Each structure stands twice: as structure tokens, then as C-alpha cells.
User: What shape does this take?
Amino acid sequence: MLVVTTENVPGYRVEKVLGNVFGLVVRSRGLVGNVAASLRTVIGGEVKEYTTLLEQARRHAVDRLIENAQAMGANAVVMMRFDSSEIGQVMSEVVAYGTALIITPAPPG
Assistant: This one.
């Protein structure tokens, strides 16, 4: 599965646009992680507990995006983007979204 943030894939042509596709993940940091992160905000600097949480959530969201695109019969996703938000200040929502396509190599020349 090819996943790109661009509108086009050089060297390929679009055979069929299958539509919107997304992968959604909601994660919560445990109580210990929240306490450690809260203490770090007092001291300042990077809140590594949340950085790790969001990195994992993004990877998981892309994995789900790929699963959904494959279920639609796609072999590529273009214009892939991330969006994120908080739910009740204890959970993070991350969504990866894009357009599922069927692409084939473009003829030379």
C-alpha cells in the first residue's frame, strides 16, 4: 500500500477513485503517566509521556487507514493528513485520513 501526502503519485495514473478513507484511534494515558506529565509541566520542557502516546497513536491511525483502504480494494492513498483533538483532557483522538485510489504504473513516454 502506497500512502502519500501529495495529490499525485509521479509515474502512476489513477484508474479509480474509491473515496474517503480514515483510521481513527482514541488513546488515554494511565494515571501514573498523567501524574508524571503534570509534574513535567511544572518544571518545563518536553512532555515525553505525551510525545510517545501521540507517536504511537499516529502509527496506529495509519495502520487502520491502510486496513480500511485495503478493504475498499485500494492500492494507494493520496492526500493523507492527520488531525487530532482531546476528549475531556484525559484522552487523545488521532485520525489519519485521505483518498483511496487504485493506481497503475503510467506507460513510459
User: Anything to note?
Assistant: Residues 2-105 form a domain with the Translation Initiation Factor IF3 fold (CATH 3.30.110.70). Residues 38 and 47 are 9 Å apart (CA to CA).
